[in-house]
Structures are given as C-alpha cells and as structure tokens.
Amino acid sequence: MTTPARAAICRGNSQPFSIEDVELDALRPDELRVRMVACGVCHTDMAVRDEQLPVPHPVVLGHEGAGIVEEVGSAVTVAKPGDRVVMSFNSCGSCPSCDIDAPTYCYNFFPHNWSGTRADGSPVMFQNGETMNANFFGQSSFATHAIAHQANTVKVPDSAAAIPLERIAPIGCGLMTGAGAVLRSMKVRKGMPIAIFGAGTVGMAAVMAAKIAGADPIIAVDVNDARLELAKELGATHAFNAKDDAIAKIKELVPQGLGYVLDTTGINSVIEGAWALLAPKGICGIVGASDPADNLTFNEAAMMGGGRTVMGILGGDSDVGPFLTELLDYHVKGQFPFEKLIGYFDFDQINEAIHASEDGSVVKPVLRISAE
Ligand SMILES: NC(=O)c1ccc[n+]([C@@H]2O[C@H](COP(=O)([O-])OP(=O)(O)OC[C@H]3O[C@@H](n4cnc5c(N)ncnc54)[C@H](O)[C@@H]3O)[C@@H](O)[C@H]2O)c1
Ligand SMILES: [Zn+2]
Ligand SMILES: [Zn+2]
C-alpha cells in the first residue's frame, strides 16, 4: 500500500521547487518510513538542481532529514516506530569499503544514493501513478514523509533527548563532513597548525572540530568577513580574508609550514595555494565540490621530499551511527555549537531558504516541515 505525502519537486534551475502531492511505496524489509520534522539545505542539493551531478530529473532532493519513525520493515533493527531519528548518506553494506566501515567510499554509492530509485531500480515514490525520482541519499527529505534505510538512519541517543530535531537535522552531511575531515580523515594532532579554506557549514564544522582536537593555531580563510567573525567565535584563533593576501599572512604566522590544510571551496587555485603551505608530513584535505573537468598540479619533488599528502575526503570518513552519536555528544557538551550556523524557514519557503544559502546570508538553512 502506498502512503500519501507532500514533496518539493525539483525540475532544474529554471523553475522554483514546487511542493506537490506524491505517494511513497510500501516498505521493503530494510526500510523505515519517517515523518519528517526538519531538513537542512546543502550545496549538494543545488549542485543536483544545476545538473552538476548525474541525478535524474525531476527529483525530490533533501539529504539532511530528521524526523519520527512511523513504520519499519521486518529486518530493521536501528529504530522502531516513535523513535527520533536523523538520516545521512546510504551505502550497500557489503563492498570492500563498507567491509572496513568506510561507507562514504561505498563501491555502490551511486545506485544507493543518486539513481533516483532503490539500488535494484524499483521506485520509492510516485506521482499520479508515474515514477518520481527520489531516494536521494537514501532519503529525499524535502518532503513530509520519506523512506529511509537501515544503513543511513541513526536513532538520536537518549543523551540528546533535549535537543530539538530541527537542530539535529543538518548533522548528517556538511557538519559531519567538516568535523570528520579533521577528526577522522586527517586525524589532526594536538598542538599542530591547521588552515581551513572556506567558512561555510563544512569549514565551520572543521573549525569546531580543530578546537576539539586541540590544533593550534586554527586559521580560517574566507572572502566573507561576517563568516570570518563567526569562525573566530567558534574556535578559529586567526581569520584572514582571501582577498587580503591570506597566504602571505599565514606564511608570516607559521613560517615552518602547516600540519594540515582543508579546502572546502573546490576552487583549483585555492587548493594549490593551500597545498604549498604544508610543512613536511603535512596533509591537504579536499572536500569542496569542484568542476568535474578540473585537474590539480603539485610539485613532485616537494610532495615526495616532504612526505606530503593530498587527501580526497568524502563525508568526513563517517561510519554514520557511531560518528553522528559522537558529534551529538560533543554538541550536548557545548563543544560543537552548530546551532550558531542555522537559520530556520517554513517548508513552503524552500525557495527562499535556497536563496539564503546561495547569497551567503544564512550558513545553514533548515526547513521546518512538521512539529515534533
Ligand atoms: N566531500 C564531501 O563529502 C562534501 C560534503 C558536503 C559538502 N561538500 C561540498 O563542500 C563544499 C563546501 O560546502 P559548504 O556547505 O560549506 O558550502 P559554502 O558555500 O557554505 O562554503 C564555502 C565557503 O567558501 C568561501 N569561499 C569562496 N571563495 C573563496 C576563496 N577564494 N577563498 C576562501 N574562501 C572562499 C565562501 O564564501 C563560503 O563561505 C561545497 O562544494 C559542497 O558541495 C562536500
Ligand atoms: Zn550535503
Ligand atoms: Zn558498499
């Protein structure tokens, strides 16, 4: 039996998102139906809208959802009806990456997250009896209800019972990526210098995580002065505007070079400039979505001679359940105050929320979809 829902349909960048009636398919054994309370808006939603990623249109996007479980399939153990849950990316559970708890690098990432259907090709959503592309990141949470999976659903721990779901919603993508890049992928060491390029959701999460890791100094670089101020509030010891010769200022501040640089801008020249700041054994982490045609150039002798690393990072090497629980624990203790990034919008203001993300006025817009 199908379940009626309302979902924001994306038909490309020439039309605004439109909230329309849809139906959700009956659940498979490993699936959960979640009544959505809130969903964050992320740049990846816009990248798909603009056809920079190979997700078929029209499509229901949204991949930072949180809500209450309504029904579960027979094989689901991660949550039960009535539980508060947050969702992240989906994975297959049985490939060489999933086998070593590295599901962000799942060999079957595309069919489980971006194909518009379940991995077996069956639709999860319909409109007027026709297939509607959905199952985006295994959720499609720009909707009143979503089908999620055992692999990408996390029960909010009792220790976070007092934190509203509308605040928790965005933790499963950009926040997880920035924090995980620092704590899990690069494993930033206490007392080591780090520079973070781009102070959006991902960069701000990296700044907060660098403070947790005890990095020093923590240097934020952006072109937006308001964001640089917020980065300082969240833990950056220094903040430089990229338009104001930030590279020279970093060299002056840390003449021996940086232990870590993290790029969240996806801009070729920014990554190459950041890489050149590394000390021996330094790591340059790359998370920003870039033009698919871009290539990077590094000096081979400097890379080999200094044992330097360039590291592509997806989802901050999160293993979903354990890492999101760890981040919520930091949040409860006041060490990961990501609420400072959030601006709330009603579900029917989804186009305004997207605009606020694109013009930089709100770091992390979150849609309020239903009352908790
Ligand atoms: N790898 C992953 O797993 C993953 C996960 C989530 C998001 N992303 C990608 O990461 C990127 C960052 O995401 P976000 O949500 O933080 O985006 P964002 O747009 O909020 O942040 C990017 C920041 O970079 C700044 N910037 C622009 N030009 C700059 C320059 N020349 N120097 C320094 N800063 C500059 C912008 O002002 C902005 O504050 C996006 O491309 C997003 O698609 C990747
Ligand atoms: Zn995202
Ligand atoms: Zn896998």
Describe this structure in words.
With 372 residues, this protein is of the alpha/beta class. It is globular and about 65 Å long. Strands 3, 5, 6, 9, 10, 17 and 18 form a 7-stranded mixed sheet that branches. Helices cover 26% and strands 26% of the residues. It folds into 2 domains: 3-172 and 337-368, Quinone Oxidoreductase, Chain A, domain 1 (Alpha-Beta Complex), CATH 3.90.180.10; 177-314, Rossmann fold. It contains 12 helices and 18 strands. It has helices spanning 43-49, 96-99, 109-113, 165-168, 174-185, 201-213, 225-234, 246-253, 268-275, 300-305, 321-332, 350-358, and strands at residues 3-10, 18-24, 31-40, 59-60, 65-72, 84-87, 125-127, 130-132, 145-149, 153-155, 194-197, 218-222, 238-241, 258-263, 278-286, 309-312, 342-346, 364-368. It binds nicotinamide-adenine-dinucleotide and zinc ion (2 copies).
What percentage of residues falls in helices of 4 or more residues? 25-40%
Helix-strand category: alpha/beta
Uncertain spans: none
What profile does the largest beta sheet have? 7 strands, mixed
- Kindly state the number of beta strands: 18
In quaternary terms, these chains amount to single chain
- How would you name the CATH homologous superfamily of the largest domain? Medium-chain alcohol dehydrogenases, catalytic domain
Bound molecules: nicotinamide-adenine-dinucleotide, zinc ion
Domain Enoyl reductase (ER): 12-367
Pfam family, one: ADH_N
Protein name: NAD(P)-dependent alcohol dehydrogenase
Keywords: Metal-binding, Oxidoreductase, Zinc
